[in-house]
Amino acid sequence: MSSSMKRSWPATLAARLTFWYTGLSTLSFLLVFILAYYLVSAVLLQQVDDDLVEDIEEFNSSFRQLGLEGMWTELEDEVAADGATNVFFQLFNVDADSLRRTADTGWEDVPSPPFESWRPGEDSDPILRSLDLREQEYQARTVYGEIDNGTNRYILQIAEPLEERAEVLELVAGIFLFSLPVFLLLSLTAGWHMSKRSLQGVEEVTATAIEISNGAIGRRVTVGDRGAEIDRLAATFNGMLDKIQILIRGMREMTDNIAHDLKSPLARIRGLAETSLTSHPADPAYEALAGSVIEECDRLLHLINTMLDLAETEAGLRPEVKPLNLSALIRDACELYQDLAQASAITLHCRCEGDVEIEGNRQFLQRLVGNLLDNAIKYTPPGGEVTIQQSLDGDDVLIKVMDTGPGIQTAELPRIFERFYRCDQSRSKPGSGLGLSLAFAIARAHLGSISVDSAVGRGSQFTVRLPLQSR
Questions:
Q1: In terms of residue numbers, what domain contains 260?
Q2: 172: nearest Cα among 70, 39, 1, 368
Q3: Residue 436's pLDDT is what?
Q4: Region 188-192: what's the mean pLDDT?
Q5: Does 420 share its domain with 379?
Q6: pLDDT-derived band of residue 386, with 50, 70 and 90 as boundaries?
Q7: Which of 427, 444, 425, 428 is closest to 436 using CA atoms?
Q8: Which alpha helices (H) appear in 83-126, and where do they start and end?
Q9: Are 154 and 286 found together in one domain?
């Protein structure tokens, strides 16, 4: 299949199933119509043939009772009653010579009798033929049959147009043409309904997978009475998620335990370094070594504390919340980071609308705002701008942190809130890759959310949405 055909083919499975259902049902409808059309045509033609053969028998009886002249008078009366264009009679002798014929209006080009394979008096059945005549609007049907009174024997031809049959067939075709669009519409509707109902379980599995990818690792697909295949898929999917969740929980517990166990040794190392620094105050080598050890220990302790805070938050333990002035918290953070921004030749703007009160944990929200501001200043080049803005949106408050930095590549956006993930693959910027993970966890712990809008060359915007009231 070519690429152009693949692009034109319906993208969704529901649309494809609808297409196939509609196509197959329409084809079946067409085949049924063709079969019905030819059955009706054959039945109507058989009725005409039966009437013509019955007429031969009736006129044979008249010939025996009334003689040739009496029978012919009856034939002419019937022509006068039905019209010369609607019925035609012709009488032949046994040698196929035409003896008499009624008015031939519309019947001028009636062919000669096909007597090559049939001879009167040999117990042969009447011969039936269809005629396509120039003067007749519809196809005609004719019969050649023997009449015999015991003394004389003749061949009688009867012909009549198949007008009624043609009108019935036209009516059948008209009904088909009228019902075809209705059938197509019903097929599309039924096919779409059936495909959506059949794929409802798959849609639920997909929705669950999306929720899980967004962080709802405990979400599961409901196993119901939707068919053995869908139920088996849901059960298999849930079982796979259970195993994945156990693995993730085990990995996180191991990481958190390692971080917790490292905290005490690092604190002791830092203490020993401080002791060494005070014991040899005049030795520059000891002073440099101890200072370097203390600095690295502080960095590792900060990393470990962040990991422990992140583990606690991701475990679902909601921090203690109290009423606080979010606007004042944001202004304090701006004031705190103003010196860092000036040192980096960056202009820091703070835009808060009035005083907004929310219920939250001051320490956690300070870290959330601080991490976002720290990241924005860190990745904005000298001469750039960083703006933090607070606004109301219905029952929520929005905190937007915007910068004029290099932006984030589209492929990296889905991963920036992951633990230890850093867009700066060269690790040239200081940091651990946990700041945005912690900000994400803090926002969720406050029943809010955080999102990012960024593109290479136009900076980044992080948006935190928090509820005004505790839910």
A1: 228-314
A2: 39
A3: 81
A4: 80
A5: yes
A6: very high
A7: 444
A8: none
A9: no
